[in-house]
Specification:
The complex is a heterodimer of chains A (161) and B (202). Chain A has 161 residues and is α+β, with helices and mostly antiparallel strands. Chain A folds into two domains: 112 residues, Immunoglobulin-like; 33 residues. Chain A is 19% helix and 43% strand. Chain A is built from one helix and eleven strands. In chain A, strands 2, 4, 6, 8, 10 and 11 form a six-stranded mixed β-sheet that branches. In chain A, strand 10 and strand 11 form a beta hairpin. The radius of gyration of chain A is 26 Å and the shape is elongated. The termini of chain A are far apart. With 202 residues, chain B is of the alpha+beta class. Chain B has two domains: 51 residues; 141 residues, Immunoglobulin-like (Sandwich). Chain B is 20% helix and 32% strand. In chain B, strands 1, 3, 4, 6, 8 and 10 form a six-stranded antiparallel β-sheet that branches. Classes of the chains: A alpha+beta (161), B alpha+beta (202). At the A-B interface, strand 1, strand 2, strand 3, strand 10 and strand 11 of A face strand 1, strand 2, strand 11 and strand 12 of B. Strand 3 of chain A pairs antiparallel with strand 1 of chain B, so a sheet runs across the interface.
Chain lengths: 161, 202
Amino acid sequence: MRYLLTLLLLPGVLALGVSPGIVEYDFVSGGTYKGYACINDAEGMNITLSISDDYLITDFEFDKNHFISTKYSECVNYTFKTVYFVDPSKTSSTYIYAEESLPEARNGAFSVRVGQQLAINTTDAPIKEDIPEIGITFTSIALGLFIIAILILFFIRRKRN
Amino acid sequence: MVKKSRKLAQTKRINNNEYAVIGALALVVAAIFVLQLYDFSFLGKATGTFDITVSGGVGCNIDQNATIGSIAAGSTTTTADYAGSTGTGLVLNNTGNVDLRVDIVSNASNTTLFPGSGPLFLFNVSAGVGADVETGVDIITNNGTDYGSWTNVSTASILIADNFTYFSTNDTIRIDFNVSIPADATAGVKKATITLNCTERP
């Protein structure tokens, strides 16, 4: 009889915390935002921070990442930018996750990941749907007027000569 | 006559001084009265306000790891205790001061972990261990009180618990596992990393 060993019993991260749990922002088109997350109960742990995929967020940067926490509560500052227009067909849910980096050898474990939610209020944000229609119409008219003006100028100049 | 009028003048001057003192005292009393109206006191009874803002923090702790160990090919094992309320399942504790949402994700599913015929890799969520029974939680995937339903461990994130409260005597949930190894599975060490994501409930 063959035996298999499933390693589901290794303790990964036993405890971890993050505060504040939710940070609220008002959407600013193409704006830059600042914030912080304090990783608690992580003294001596090798902490990795990550951010969930969200189309709203661009250029996310932590002031430090992949670090060994030296105190009970270690705070990390971050900055990020948002897109210019909101797409109502997409849902937005952004989390910053903190977890202990498990060495390759310890793959096969339970681990806890704690998340800080970035709640971005987009109720008054400009909607992306309106932009292409306005943009195409506006560009076509502007380009047409520009070409007509150039032609008129050429015509006048030619007639003068 | 001259002496009498000088004495009268002196008396008059003293009286004026007295009036001045009485007037000054009256002003002081009036000032105290007015200041007391605005809660200011000379008797060491000044009052003030003291505001502290306690920030909300997410915290999760694995109080007990689930134990699977060695399993024979073609057999099934579980951490659940069908007869009682203990078992060897994973115990997750809400150690923060906010209510949580918890989801579970694995880097391997039943088919990737145990290639073969009919592998099972399931989990079941229960509201608490022993006396520390989580009272407010909504178990999303199943209800572990009777182990009636099990859910496949997945590489996609699955929301398992909502409104997981932080009250210290009722803040644990248990996650049991059920593993069934195909008889034709290849022998060896199989590894899966199971991550529990704890986030504040909006």
